[in-house]
Structure formats: C-alpha cells, structure tokens
Write a structure and sequence with these properties.
The structure is a homodimer of 354-residue chains. Chain A has 354 residues and is α/β, with parallel strands linked by helices. Chain A has 3 domains: 43 residues, 434 Repressor (Amino-terminal Domain) (Orthogonal Bundle), CATH 1.10.260.40; 122 residues, Rossmann fold; 160 residues, Response regulator (Rossmann fold, 3-Layer(aba) Sandwich), CATH 3.40.50. Helices cover 43% and strands 15% of the residues of chain A. In chain A, the strands form 2 sheets. Chain A has a 6-stranded parallel β-sheet. In chain A, α2 crosses α3, α6 runs parallel beside α14 and α12 crosses α13. In chain A, 51% of the residues are buried. Chains A and B meet through α4, α5, α6, β2 and α12 of A and α4, α5, α6, β2 and α7 of B. β2 of chain A pairs antiparallel with β2 of chain B. The structure holds a DNA duplex (30 and 30 nucleotides).
Chain lengths: 354, 354
DNA sequence: AGTGACTTGTAAACCGTTTTATAAATCATG
DNA sequence: CATGATTTATAAAACGGTTTACAAGTCACT
C-alpha cells in the first residue's frame, strides 16, 4: 500500500539508514546515492510516516487548538474564526497542520489528554484552569489567548480592562445612563471547569465599572442590566427582543455587547420593534469583525485583531517548542466610532433636565 | 517525565503485555491483577502514548479535512464554516479530533500527502482531481463534498443544476432580463490543479442556462454578465461597485451570487450607490447562511444545509473506515424567497412594452 | 492418572522511523 | 607503503506501544 522506508531501501538496494539520511541529512552520504534514492522516493511517492518519525524525533508537525466550546459554536463566532485564521496562517507558513480540539465530554482537559500535537494554543483558559497544570506537568508547550499573564502561562491578549473602560466612556459621554450589557453565556459544561469567558469578562466588567463609577453609577445600579446571551446572532436577537418590549422610560437607551456578533443580532430585534439605531437606541460591540462595517448602520465597536492574536500565539507556541522563551504579548486596541451610537434620546435624558 | 508502559510494568511487577491488556483488554487477565495495575496507572497518571499506539493499531483517532483554500479564506465563508461545523459535530460524537488540511504550497495533494489521519473529507474536489487518485491508490478512505457522484468517489451534495434552474426561474418570473451572475473566483493556485469550485459552478451554470434558454436567452447573451469575485463580503462589494456605476439602462436589474456572503457584500455597494433593494436592484444568493435573515432586506436565497452535508460526509467517511459502503448522498434544497428580490423596475422592463 | 479445555501471564516480534556505533573503503601524507 | 583521517554505508538499538504465539498452571471429566 503506502510505501515504507523499507520498500525504498529495497528498491534502491541500500539500507534503511541510507534512505533516512538521503531525506534528512543529505550531506551524510554521497551525492550520487542521495540523488538516486531521492529519485526513487519521488517515483514511488514515498513520504515518511509522521507517526513513526515522531516516536524518535518527538516532533509531529501539528499544532493543537484547544477550543473552549464545541466546534459549531466556535465557528459561529467570527472573532474566534479570525483567531483561528491567524493560527492557521502561521501553521501554513511553518508547514504544520492544525488540529481542532473541542472539549471532550464537555471537558477541555480530556481534549488535551488525547491531543496528538507538538504544541498547543488555548483560547480563554485562565491560569487556574486544570488544563494548565496538566500541560505544564507533561511538558507540553502551550500559549494562552485571552487568558492571564502569569508565570505559569504565556499569554496573548489585549488590555481588556482599558478597552471596556474606553467603550463605556464613549457611551456615557453620549449621555446614556440606562444601559444593557450583553455577556456571552458560558455553556454549563464549561462553567464546571472555569469557563473561558470569565477571564475576559471579568476584566471588561471591571473596566465598565471604573467608567460607571466616575459618573456615580455601578454595575449593580438599577439602570444597568447585565444579560447573558448566546454568543451568536440569535443570542443577540433574543436579548434585544427582551429589552425592546420595555416601556420607553425604563428601556435602556444603549446596548453594549461583548461581541459584535451579538450586537448585530440585536439589530434584527430593533427593526422588529421599529426602533431606529442610533436615534432610539445606541448599540456597540467588541471585536470589530468584518461584518460590522457592512450592516446598516455600521457598528461602533472596540477594534481588536483576532488574526493578529492567532498568528502571534501560534508563533510563540512554536518558539516555545524550539526552546525559546517568548514574553507575554498584549496588542493595542482602539475604539471605532461608527453610526450605531448617538446621543441619548432627549425624552429619556432625565439627567439633562436636572 | 511522562511515565511509559515500561514504568507501570516495572512498578506492578508484571510484563508490558499485561499492562497493555489491563488497559485494552481487561477480560484477558485476572480481575485482581487488572485492578492492581489500573490503580498504579491512575496513581502515576499514565496515559498510553497515542503516537506509539497508532503505529500498531493504525488508528489515529483523527479525521482530516482537505480544504480547497487557505484557512483564512475558508473561515471567511460561512457556508464552509457550516460544513466544518457539521463535520466537527460528527467527530465529537465519535470521539475523533479534526485536522484541518489547507493546501500546501498551493497544492491540495501535498496536504493529503502529509496528512496523518484515519479518513478524509474533501470539499469541492472532482473525480478528475489528482488527489482522488492519490487517496484511492493509497487506500485512504475519503468522502467528497460538492464533488461528483462517480464510481471512484463517494459524494455528498445537493442537486446544484436544479437549484440554479429554480433560482433563475424565480428571477425571470419577476421580469428580470438584464442580470449579473457573481461567481467565486478560484485562486490561481487552485486553478492549476482543477479548482474545486468548478464542479459546482459548472452544474449551476448549466442550470442557469436551461432556465435562460426557456425565455430565449443564454449565458453569453449581452445582457447577462458573468463576473468573478472573491468569495467574501469584500468580493461582493467590489463586484457591486463595478456594476452600479453603469447607466440605469444598461445596468443589470438583478444580481445572482453563487454564495450568500457575496450577495450580502453587494448590499454595501448598493447603499453607497443609493440604490434601493429590491426596488432598483434585486439580489439573490446561494446557501441560506444565518446572516442572510439578519440583513435588511432579508436575502432571497437557495437554501442548503452545510451542517447537514458536513455531518453526513463525516459519518460516511467513518463508515468507509469501518469497512462499510455508503452510497452517494444528495440533500434536497429549496428556494427561500425573502425581501431582496422584486419585480423588475418598470422603466427597465422593455420586454413589457412589446 | 491422563486428557483436553480454560485461565493467566509472558517473551518476542512488530509497527516505521531516527540515531548511534561501527565497519569498510578511500584518500592524503610523511 | 604503512598510517591516520575522512567518506560512505550499514547493522542494531531505540522510541512506546500492541499483538501473536506459546508456556505454565487450573480445572473438570473420564
């Protein structure tokens, strides 16, 4: 069937060793022999079995991506797709393949256990997660994306606290005081093992909180509502539907979603409720995914590049694998103000009349 | 570091074989010995090295997905994401991991060569593609998605010819006679080895052609323009910008895109050109991705379920692996008429005045 | 007691590579 | 023309498992 090194050796009338050298260490043998063998290799379409090779070299040629959720949910989230794109790009450049490792039986660590890769990138895994211990104790090089910068992990992320602060400042400066914050709902299984989102979520909430405090509000104020939604268009739409049935007086005048995809989902709900964006309701998101520019009105959002995060993380994982010691990396992010946020509707602007 | 089977054997005072049996074939040895060994396994945190195990069992526990394009392009295409979701779902159910195999040096066959997986799913690979020969001759079980139903491949798809016919009929019944058809541009490298899109594209074009013929038109008629675009939002936007600068008399009154994502990209161009959908221009797509319902106006499209195609294909690949003989599978698809298509603008409806 | 059938455990071969140690052949040099 | 250095090729060990074939011990039954 698939030719092995033995077949090549037999065909060339040499030993397995010689064939191995021809492929991995050409200077070790004479040019003629090498060329002759390589020709046969080519002719028979031989390719060294990576598994067998791994047994001795300890290199498999594959990078693993430990996903926080099942694949369908991940692929529904454009920002996560961007991250994967970045990782994929880097892998391609280095000739590695990329293995997706979604939770097994709802547990990330089980996925890590059966992972069949040289190095790992995780998304949203904090330093206290059991999988961190596992990877460290087994000496598997790994880099976390959207985790924390500690001594037991190497992380790639953005300054989420500041990002959230800036975004909230923007909303407040427009006069909004009644707001809904849409968070990604961790699926139950993930919760059990320290949901990935909680890391980023906490940082952002503390950023929001800081901005709110400056105007005498806080996250538990009656006018600030925190909603959990699925991280998808439908999730956003459902959340929007719940909010938009409220009376104009009690209804939030602004929505801040933890992901653009959620924010865009609320557009559909707003349309159904005949609310105009941004006249009746202001909406903002996080991530700045491509679509956000295409929707009408274009979405105000906190820009970050998933692609960049992915690339960097993959590069760092490979660096670790090669014995390097990459440092934590935090990419800048900036607020992109587009057409979906505007001043608070005058009627709701009770603070103005004071 | 990581304990091996030898360590366990030594600690338990038995042979490697016995340990192996304790793990894989417990009935083969006495219950007591088995329990004793398993206790030690647990205590030492032993986990059989999957690489070594594979060498003899020939099962890797991983399914490979041979992608037609680099990962970033694939992940930008929601329909492809849906397919991957479906495959992922099935993999998860069976406890397999999923390895992404984008073209290596622009060649799909190179990706297949270094693939180390139990079975493969391809997207858009036709029976004449070199990789089909490769996989068949190496005895690697594989299933094609959006390929062709031949004896050398097992395929999962939809009746693309009929789908295209139905969609075109819809446009024609609305009175449209000047039309632009937006096709996915195969990236140059893929062309070199028989671009994947060509399979589906050809079927669809022949479906369009059949419908056009019924009203005395054809694909090369002056009023029918065929454009190649990138399979993304930007691709659609760019194409739209080219079309919308044309004079109202020569400008197409309808756009049919080979993918929803392209169709949605033209929305932005239409908005910039102050054209109203569907009053000034009708737009339709293929796939019925989730977003298509969320854009305003909601997109008329030919529904198909990528998720379903992916699930089925993965299931069939595994069936092949287990010695089964799954049959070709063609899923039904149906036209979803939404708000983006309407009657041809009266001024352009020259055929009416005849 | 002898026979055949199970149990239970093991030694050795094997999977497809790389790597190490070694042998044989060639070459340059005093 | 020995001698040591350098090339070139190889046999054998290793990697960490599984599987095959076999041996020893039990057991039941004639």
């Amino acid at each position: 069937m698939k030719p092995t090194i033995k077949d090549i050796a037999a065909r060339a009338g040499v030993s397995k060793t010689t064939v191995s050298f021809a492929i991995n260490n050409p200077t070790r043998i004479s040019k003629e022999t090498c060329d002759r063998i390589l020709a046969i290799v080519d002719e028979m379409g031989y390719f060294p079995n990576p598994v067998a090779r791994t047994l001795t070299t300890k290199r498999l040629g594959s990078l693993g991506l430990l996903l926080p959720q099942p694949l369908p949910e991940v692929l529904n989230n454009p920002h996560l797709c961007d991250i994967i794109s970045g990782i994929g790009e880097e892998c391609e450049k280095r000739g590695l393949s990329l293995t997706m490792l979604p939770p097994v039986q709802g547990r990330i660590i089980e996925a890590a256990r059966r992972a069949f890769v040289d190095a790992i990138v995780t998304i949203g895994v904090g330093p206290d997660h059991e999988v961190v211990d596992f990877l460290n104790s087994h000496g598997i090089p790994f880099v976390t994306i959207d985790g924390e910068e500690t001594s037991s992990t190497v992380n790639v992320g953005i300054p989420d606290e500041k990002a959230a602060y800036d975004l909230m400042k923007h909303m407040l400066s427009l006069g909004h005081r009644k707001m809904a914050i849409l968070c990604v709902k961790p699926d139950t299984k993930s919760i059990a093992e320290n949901d990935h989102r909680s890391i980023v979520l906490e940082k952002r909430l503390s950023g929001f909180s800081r901005a709110l405090n400056e105007v005498g509000l806080n996250l538990v104020a009656p006018d600030i509502s925190l909603l959990e939604t699925e991280g998808s268009l439908v999730g956003g739409k459902n959340a929007g539907e719940k909010l938009f049935v409220l009376e104009p007086g009690t209804r939030p005048t602004a929505i801040v979603a933890m992901a653009d995809i959620i924010a865009l989902g609320t557009y559909a709900a707003a349309r159904e409720a005949s609310l105009s964006i941004p006249v009746d309701i202001s909406i903002a998101g996080f991530d700045d995914i491509e679509q956000s520019r295409y929707y009408e009105p274009a979405l105000t959002t906190m820009h970050q590049s998933g692609r960049q995060k992915g690339q960097k993380a993959a590069g760092m994982a490979i660096e670790l694998l090669n014995g390097g010691h990459p440092a934590h990396c935090s990419f800048p992010c900036n607020l992109i103000v587009r057409a979906s946020t505007g001043p608070v509707p005058s009627r709701s602007a009770s603070y103005k009349s004071s």
